[in-house]
Amino acid sequence: MPLPTYVGIAGADNLSIVAGSASTASGAGVLRPGGKVKMRDITDGTTNTLMIGEQSDWGKNGAANFDIRSATQHGGWMGTGKTGWPGSGVDWTGDNRTFNLTTVRYKIGQKLRIAGATNGMETNCGVNKPIQSAHIGGAQVLLADGSVRFASDSLNLGLLKNLVNRNDDNVIGEW
Predict the structure, then answer these.
(1) Could you tell me the residue ranges of all domains in the chain?
(2) C-alpha to C-alpha distance for 132 and 59, rounded to whole angstroms
(3) Model pTM?
(4) What is the spatial distance between Cα 162 and Cα 175, in angstroms, rounded to a whole number?
(5) What is the full DSSP assignment across 136-173?
(6) pLDDT per position as a tens digit, 99-113
(7) Burial class (CB in 10 A: 0-12, 13-18, 19+), 36
(8) 8 Å CB contact between 26 and 11
């Protein structure tokens, strides 16, 4: 079963969220669960908005490795079972799993579990699995304009969240 090493970005945990018991899912990104985004909806500009990020390395839980790719054992083509987002009439409170999408909650390169197992990085169904890679120093990302950049793991988390939300009206400088 093919497992992808890239993940769609649904936004950040600070905007347009649905909080679950273990994860926080966003709909503020370019690739949102159960919905679609048109170019005109990316008001921050396609050159300022991340759409896809790399997820190609293992996480750490003490001495043990664990898979922190968003597809985990489900394969590269599984998506969400939901058909909408808040306001669409779909109840997300009981099951807000979104495979192959991530909501940014952690810095690029985060590989250690934080504060136990309920932090959105679970081995199955966590929607806050970080952008990370086996490369030293960062990970590859695709912007909504189609360009690819190497994003450093020293990138400020606040700036990263601004980059993944498509319409938060935050000014993005050089990164």
Answers:
(1) 6-164
(2) 9
(3) 0.84
(4) 12
(5) TTEEEEEETTS-EEEEETTS-HHHHHHHH-TTS-----
(6) 788 899 999 999 876
(7) exposed
(8) yes
